[in-house]
Specification:
Strand order of the largest sheet: 5-4-1-6-11-8-12-10-9
Distance between the termini: 46 Å
Radius of gyration: 18 Å
Number of strands: 13
Strand content: 15-25%
CATH class: Alpha Beta
Order of helices and strands: EEEHEHEHHEEHEEEEHEEH
Number of helices: 7
């Protein structure tokens, strides 16, 4: 039986307010880092991993993003700005794109799994692998996240990382359960890299109440869904040590382009 290809959703709908005035006339995913648009780095990495089906959501200047595509990948667009007048936030955008990410005609095991990544992070060494997909499919979890060390603009971090089976207490765990730590918990927190593997079920009841395909264009963030699933031990994570930058300000973009 021919297995359905695993799709990837590239989040590209943000306005990029902190990047103004650069983003007044150019959407942030098309700002160039070392000669290539930010989103192109992701598209090339996905292609190297053998993932050729990508769904891109757009809002601000989305027509520029669609016109710019010169990739050999199979790219589909979810135009939130055109359809609803603006971005739907991360969870709202994913639910809107689910019919493209997980077509109903694909019924084989694992056809409900897809990558999600933000177009505005620079992570040139990340490898999208079938091995990671296969491990996730077998895990039964709702999401698997890649975490990074906390940058200066997010020193408090986002999520904790629990010990994996067989890990030695007191040693740094590299892979384990993602933890929704309470404020008073002193365990280390890490920053979500915006790269993850997801299962369609996270965006359905009881985790998400938005109707399939989000026909009304409801806005919804992703973090509450992830935290609820973490509280039920249904999210795993691993640490990524490679270069990673959230290209959120003109200054960070300038630094990246100054490095050789």
């Amino acid at each position: 039986m021919m297995l359905a290809p695993v799709a990837a959703m590239l989040l590209a709908a943000g306005r990029g307010e902190r990047m103004r005035p650069l983003t007044d006339s150019c959407p942030k995913p098309l700002l160039k880092v070392r000669g290539k648009p930010l989103m192109q780095w992701h598209l090339e990495a996905l292609a190297r991993g053998g993932f050729d089906h990508v769904v891109v959501n757009t809002a601000w200047l989305g027509e520029q993003i669609e016109r710019s595509s010169s990739s050999s990948l199979q790219i589909q667009y979810s135009h939130e700005g055109r359809d609803f007048g603006g971005a739907l936030e991360t969870a709202g955008g994913i639910v809107r794109a689910l019919p493209l990410l997980c077509p109903t005609e694909h019924t084989d095991a694992g056809a409900d799994v897809f990558w999600v990544l933000a177009a505005d992070v620079f992570v040139p060494g990340f490898k999208f692998t079938q091995a990671a997909v296969d491990r996730f499919k077998c895990s039964g979890k709702l999401a698997h996240l890649w975490l990074v060390s906390n940058p200066e603009h997010n020193v408090a971090g986002d999520f904790g990382l629990g010990l994996n089976a067989g890990a030695v207490p007191g040693e740094l765990s590299r892979v384990g359960l993602a933890l929704n730590l309470p404020p008073a918990d002193a365990r280390p927190r890490y920053t979500y890299s915006t790269i993850g593997l997801y299962r369609k079920a996270l965006f359905e009841p009881p985790w998400c109440s938005i109707p399939s395909g989000n026909p009304q264009g409801m806005k919804a963030p992703l973090a509450p869904l992830l935290r609820a699933a973490m509280d039920n031990a249904l999210v795993t994570a691993e640490l990524y040590d490679g270069a990673w930058t959230d290209v959120g300000t003109p200054e960070r973009l300038e630094v990246l382009n100054a490095l050789k």
